[in-house]
Amino acid sequence: MLSVVRERAGDVVVVKCAGRIVRGQEARLRNAVLEEKHARFVVLDLSQVSSMDAGGLNLLVYLHRWIESHGAHLKVVDPRPFVREMLMRTHLNCVFEISSFHEALTVLCGGEEPAEAAGSYRAVA
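^ thats the sequence. predicted structure below, dont judge the formating
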């Protein structure tokens, strides 16, 4: 099962996923991202995603294209080794910006200390 929680700070939305991103379970993630039409940055936290299949990879590509078509940017953070390996084997690591959550916050906060910025997020779903 896949659980999804969104947090927002201004025009940055963090989507935290836990579980498996697999065909038939991806609707929660898709809906959570598609509801964020006005975000400039979507950070997809995969640190608690244990596995992903082709349907999950397809969803990530779809979300990337949808986000870019709305003038926003997608950052993938902290994928577990299995998910990172899948992204590498399919060469999607060249498509997605992949980093640690800490690095993403530093960039998004314009060099501010991420610990200060992290406290300002509020859950929205």
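Confidence is low (pLDDT under 50) at residues 113-125.
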